[in-house]
Design brief:
Layout: H1 4-18, H2 25-41, H3 46-60, H4 63-66, H5 71-87, E1 102-107, H6 114-127, E2 132-137, H7 144-155, E3 159-160, H8 168-181, E4 186-191, H9 199-212, E5 216-222, H10 227-240, E6 244-248, H11 257-266, E7 270-274, E8 282-284, H12 287-294, H13 300-310, H14 313-325, H15 330-341, H16 346-350, H17 370-379, H18 383-386, H19 394-404, H20 408-429, H21 433-440
Parallel strand pairs: 1-4, 1-5, 2-3, 2-4, 5-6, 6-7
Antiparallel strand pairs: 7-8
Length: 447
């Protein structure tokens, strides 16, 4: 997960500060040195780190901190504010042009995930009520056009191509006309990349830019390349004058330095970040939420948004009623798990919860594949067993284990967890929610 290493180091540094009643100049200096090392190890640009430490140190040395009753909290507050400022202060949205279609040109090197990101962006805009059209202008890479067509098909988004043509300017111009004729209000142009930046690549991109005049030029960079990602962004910006950056593979980079450096070096916003391989794993980049997650404060708004997208409102009301009447069944349990899976990997979700100690979770297995075992166990039950109408005896457990391809231990673990959930719901119905919430944090996932 992005920033994992940096988050661990920063949280460890601030834990030392919290243990002090008063913070001396030496304490601050020591803390800033540790923050500096943590940022450099996270592959943040050296000049960016230098300016960041200077800003934080100057603010932290003031009376606001030194005379505060909670100096450690004040220092963390300053670091949080400076991190947000460094990453862009607020989310930046796609600029919708005055004329339809709004043209978005995707640029970047080969291997950054440009074609997939073009599709993901189309999917995201489609959810917002837009009618996107994808245009295949990567005419050099083998199977690039086919890849875009497959992605478009999966998202039910049309893809414009010109059979046998290598004239990308002509293709993009025809795509604009096609979009106008077919009422597509968004046109996303997937351009060719290279293994490295060269004159041919830049000339081609400039020609497309000059002819179709895109409303947005988004540069797609691989976050896992660290400082190289920053250098690529700087060069593309100088040559092409980009409007924003999309950071891909941010879920796989534990350092995350590119996300902190890109905005500061190019002065162009990070607009989106790729957080997984699914076609839905593209998120709007929120600097304040990212800073909050780095400092271990969670991301409550992000968590709520994921829940709103994943959970069916009608089913949620039905569940609430079942909790009150204590009629919660294994079928309900399976349904809730299915909706939780739609929110994304559980290991990422729990880290969005404020106060969750990442170190404490290291021993807990959040392998989402294990949910399939639970699913198999519940589906191997008879309708009366699933609806809680009969007691599950040892013989029934044995039959369920064989039918689901699991062990008796796994079946028993699930039944025990379900029993715990039922007890918890009784407490909720009886008005003892607070005590149960405290206990809920100690519950273990089965298997």
């Amino acid at each position: 997960m992005a920033f994992e290493s940096l988050a661990d180091k920063l949280q460890s540094t601030f834990k030392k500060l919290r243990g002090k009643g008063k913070v001396s100049e030496k304490d601050l200096k020591d803390a800033m040195r540790e923050v500096k090392l943590a940022l450099l190890e996270a592959d943040v640009n050296f000049l960016v780190v230098k300016n960041f430490i200077k800003s934080v140190s100057e603010r932290a040395a003031g009376a606001e901190v030194m005379e505060s009753l909670t100096p450690a909290q004040q220092v963390i507050k300053i670091v949080n504010e400076e991190l947000i400022r460094l990453m862009g202060e607020k989310e930046e949205k796609i600029k919708i042009g005055p004329k339809s279609p709004t043209i978005i040109m995707m640029a970047g090197l080969q291997g950054a995930g440009k074609t997939t990101t073009a599709g993901k962006l189309g999917g995201l805009l489609k959810k917002q009520g837009k009618r996107p059209l994808l245009c295949a202008c990567d005419v050099y890479r083998p199977a690039a056009i086919k890849q875009l067509q497959v992605v478009g098909s999966q998202l039910d988004i049309p893809v414009f191509t010109v059979e046998g043509s290598t004239d990308v300017v002509d293709i993009s111009q025809k795509a604009v006309e096609y979009a106008r004729l077919h009422s597509n209000d968004i046109l996303i142009i997937d351009t060719a990349g290279r293994l490295h930046i060269d004159e041919v690549l830049m000339d081609e991109l400039k020609n497309i830019k000059d002819e179709v005049k895109p409303d947005e030029i988004l540069l797609v960079v691989d976050a896992m390349t660290g400082q190289d990602a920053v250098n690529v962004a700087e060069t593309f910006n100088n040559e092409l004058e980009i409007d924003g950056v999309v950071l891909t593979k941010l879920d796989g980079d534990t350092r995350g330095g590119a996300a902190i450096s890109v905005r500061a070096v190019t002065n162009k916003p990070i607009k989106f970040c790729g957080m997984g391989e699914k076609l839905t794993d593209l998120e709007v980049f929120h600097p304040d939420r990212m800073a909050s997650r780095i400092l271990g404060m969670g991301d409550v708004l992000g968590l709520i948004e994921k829940a709103e997208q994943a959970f069916d409102e009608k089913k949620a009301l039905e569940l609430e009623k079942k909790m009150r009447t204590q009629t919660f069944t294994y079928s309900d349990f399976l349904d809730q798990m299915s909706q939780m899976k739609n929110m994304g990997p559980l290991s990422q979700i729990v880290k969005m919860i404020p106060g969750v100690n990442a170190k404490a979770l290291e021993g807990v297995d959040f392998d989402d594949k294990r949910f399939k075992h639970i699913e198999a166990i519940i589906q191997s039950m008879t309708p009366s067993e699933r609806e809680n109408r009969v007691k599950i005896s040892p013989k029934r457990k044995e039959r369920i284990a064989k039918g689901s391809g699991t062990s008796m231990n796994e079946v028993n673990a699930l039944l025990k967890q379900f029993e715990q959930m039922q007890k918890m719901m009784k407490q909720f119905a009886g008005g003892k929610a607070n005590k149960q919430l405290a206990r809920f944090g100690k519950m273990r996932f089965p298997m």
